[in-house]
Structures are given as structure tokens and as C-alpha cells.
Write a structure and sequence with these properties.
- The chain is α/β, with parallel strands linked by helices and 366 residues long.
- It has two domains: 168 residues, 3-Layer(aba) Sandwich (Rossmann fold), CATH 3.40.50; 182 residues, Dehydroquinate synthase-like - alpha domain (Dehydroquinate synthase-like, alpha domain), CATH 1.20.1090.
- The chain has a six-stranded parallel β-sheet with strand order 1-8-5-4-2-3, sandwiched between helices. The protein has a two-stranded antiparallel sheet with strand order 6-7.
- Helix 7 packs across helix 13.
- The longest helix has 21 residues.
């Protein structure tokens, strides 16, 4: 298989990297800061960002209306806000939802003719505004990916956009901002990063340097998850490991993509409100069972990096809270119809592939 690796985002790593590298925010004279309601402030990232912007004499406005599983309507509204203040670039501060939303906002901001739903057409006249990102959770790896997952208000369905226009111009990767995360959020985002790492690892594209990234982050993520499964608090010493490992996992999926746990997980998030990371983790067991059957060499390597597979399943299961969600056969059939006409790349990239009928069966067992 031939493939290319492309990751143009400039990344600054380490404690204090935002203020120390403020010159990287010289992307214009005015920006729109995009956040959720609380995490940017609580983490200290917003304060550092404002200090860095003032240092570079960049004025700013703030849009704090992005929630979990960002709605295209909210992104569209933020694009309007960016135009109103004459923003030259977008600065997203938060978890994966905010970072993904910032990429869409940059497109809406420079293309006033787009309606919210038009973002999925991937056709527009003007180049998206530059985007700078500051992550506050250890999960999505959006800092280094060319993907933004958005939710259609009308259908409630999550769907991603991707392409060169979805890369950040610059990302600041400082694990100290993750210390304000709650235990539950830490667990869910860590499960998301673990899903990225293993799903990407088991695709055919994961070879060469990409395999090195996967083999670097999988043991780190699993060791942290094992610790989290034995406590109801988050030891400070694993925060840094989780954050940097999530970035390595992001580098893996940026080229390799994800496998079937991600689209199946969307069903749990959309219909039962299960946090994204836990929703993906709900399908860990059937995924690794197929990997053992259809990718035995990689599966053996995965077990060497983690533990005996029964124990790994137990750790992931103990951390996966589905809030009592039960799908059943009837709902599984209804949910699976979304893949009746088009089998997503996540299915075909999975070891052994996955059909709509197989997806329905896996869903029915939740």
C-alpha cells in the first residue's frame, strides 16, 4: 500500500509554551477567541492566551458558545461574530469540541454566503482564516489533525469534514491545562485517545513512522488507563503522559483514520448522551476480537504493548460508563440503516472489514 504523510501544523510543546512563543500568534492584528463556557478559564489557558495576544499587540473578541459535540449552527454564528469584529484569525481554546469547531468557524468566517449545512459540501470561494489552537484535554489530538467532527442540528447526526483547510496554522501543547479536568472527563478523553491509537494502529496504513507513533503511545495510554481503573482521582504524574500520548495518537489517525468503533460510538452519543470517548470504548471488545482474527501479527504486538487481552478488556470495561444505555435489536436495526447506502471508510479500514449487518449485530448487544 502506498500513502503519504502530511502534517503541516506547527506545534509548540511544554510548560509555558503559549507565552514563551507568543510571536507565533502574529497571524493578524485581530482575532476571535473561541471557547466553551468554563474550561478555557478554569485551566488557565485563556489567561495565558490573552497575555500572549497583548504581548503581540493583537486585539480580540471572545465567543464562548461552543458546547460538546459542536453544532453547525453555533459554528456558523461564531463565523458571523468573527466577521463583525474583522478577525484575521481564529484562536480555539478548549477540548476537542472547541478545537474542531474553530476549524469550521474559520471557514464560515471568510465565506459569508455559506449556510450552516453548506459546510458539508466542502465548496467555498475564499480561503479559511488561519487557526491557532490551545488544547485543554488529553483526547482528540485535534491539534494535529485535519478533521473536524460537527453535529447537524436538524438530524442530530455527527459528521466530519476534513482536508488541508482543517489544519491549524499553529498549536500549543501544554499539559498543565489538562489539570483542571474532572476524573470522568479525564477518563473519557483518555479512552478516546486510546481508541485513536489502537484503531489507527490496526489499519493497513499504519506502518513506518506512523507505527512508531502508535507503538510509542499505546503502552503509555494503557498504563494510565490501568491506574485510572484503580482510583477515583487523577494522579498528577499521569496528566503529562496522557496529553502527549493523545497528540501521538492524533498523528496516527491523521493519516490512518479510525475504525468501526468511532461511527458506532456516534450512535451512543447522539441517542443516549454517552461521552464520545466512552462511546468508542463500548466497542473495544468486538473490535479487538476481529483484530485477533484478521490481523494476528499486529494483535500479538498489541498484547505485548499492553497485557493479556482479557485483562485489557476488563480495564476498558471498568472505565466505560454508558449510563444504563440499552440499544436492543429493534433500535440497532434502525440505527444501522444510516450505513445502508454508503459503508464508511472506518468500516472498510477495520481488520476484516465490517458490513451494515455486522454493525447492527454489534449495536444490538449493547
Amino acid at each position: 500500500m502506498t500513502y503519504s504523510i502530511y502534517m503541516p501544523a506547527k506545534c509548540f510543546w511544554g510548560n509555558g509554551c503559549v507565552c514563551e512563543n507568543s510571536s507565533a500568534l502574529d497571524l493578524g492584528k485581530n482575532c476571535l477567541i473561541v471557547t466553551g463556557k468554563n474550561s478555557a478559564k478554569l485551566s488557565g489557558a485563556l489567561g495565558d492566551a490573552i497575555e500572549a495576544l497583548k504581548k503581540e499587540d493583537v486585539s480580540y473578541g471572545i465567543f464562548d458558545g461552543i458546547g460538546e459535540n459542536p453544532l453547525i449552527s453555533a459554528c456558523h454564528k461564531a463565523g458571523e461574530a468573527a466577521r463583525e469584529i474583522g478577525a484575521d484569525f481564529i484562536l480555539g481554546i478548549g477540548g476537542g469540541s472547541v478545537l474542531d469547531a474553530s476549524k469550521a468557524i474559520a471557514i464560515y468566517a471568510s465565506n459569508s454566503e455559506l449556510s450552516p449545512i453548506d459546510i458539508y459540501k466542502r465548496e467555498y470561494k475564499n480561503k479559511a482564516l488561519p487557526v491557532a489552537l490551545i488544547g485543554t484535554t488529553a483526547g482528540t489530538g485535534s491539534e494535529v489533525t485535519a478533521v473536524a467532527v460537527l453535529t447537524n442540528d436538524e438530524t442530530g447526526i455527527k459528521k466530519s469534514i476534513s482536508g488541508p483547510d482543517c489544519y491549524a496554522a499553529v498549536s500549543f501543547c501544554d499539559p498543565k491545562y489538562t489539570h483542571s479536568m474532572s476524573y470522568k472527563t479525564t477518563v473519557s478523553t483518555a479512552l478516546d485517545a486510546f481508541a485513536h491509537a489502537i484503531e489507527g494502529f490496526f489499519t493497513q496504513k499504519c506502518d513506518g513512522p506512523l507505527r512508531l507513533f502508535a507503538e510509542k503511545c499505546i503502552p503509555k495510554l494503557y498504563s494510565c488507563l490501568e491506574i485510572l481503573s484503580q482510583t477515583d482521582t487523577v494522579p498528577d504524574e499521569i496528566r503529562e503522559k496522557l496529553y502527549y500520548a493523545s497528540i501521538y495518537a492524533g498523528l496516527v489517525i491523521n493519516t490512518c483514520g479510525t475504525a468501526f468503533p468511532h461511527p458506532l460510538g456516534y450512535v451512543l452519543t447522539e441517542n443516549y448522551g454517552v461521552p464520545h470517548g466512552m462511546a468508542c470504548a463500548a466497542f473495544f471488545a468486538p473490535f479487538v476480537d476481529r483484530c485477533a482474527e484478521f490481523a494476528p501479527e499486529k494483535f500479538a504486538n498489541f498484547c505485548k504493548m499492553t497485557d493479556e487481552i482479557g485483562k485489557v478488556k476488563a480495564v476498558i470495561s471498568s472505565l466505560t460508563d454508558l449510563g444504563g444505555a440499552v440499544i436492543g435489536k429493534e433500535n440497532a436495526k434502525k440505527f444501522a440503516l444510516r450505513w445502508q447506502s454508503v459503508i464508511p471508510r472506518n468500516f472498510t479500514a477495520s481488520p476484516g472489514g465490517l458490513t451494515m449487518e455486522e454493525a447492527e449485530k454489534i449495536l444490538s448487544e449493547i
